[in-house]
Amino acid sequence: MKAVEMLAPIHQAQLLTYLGLAALTLGMLINFNVLHLREGIRRMVNNFNG
Predict the structure, then answer these.
(1) Residue 47: is it exposed, middle or buried by C-beta count within 10 angstroms (0-12/13-18/19+)?
(2) pTM above 0.90?
(3) Which region, left, alpha or beta, applies to residue 38 given φ > 0 means left and ψ of -120 to 50 means alpha?
(4) Is the distance from CB of 7 to CB of 31 less than 8 angstroms?
(5) Bridge partner residues of 36 (DSSP)
């Protein structure tokens, strides 16, 4: 978990790296700095071959 002003492409890359290292398939980036929380949720799937 981290607090930033806005999500950037590097945050997606970090999440995919963390998912790969932990051998997990699903992760979420959540931006709390939006009017409606549903607009700040990004679901990411790691399609690793492991």
Answers:
(1) exposed
(2) no
(3) alpha
(4) yes
(5) none
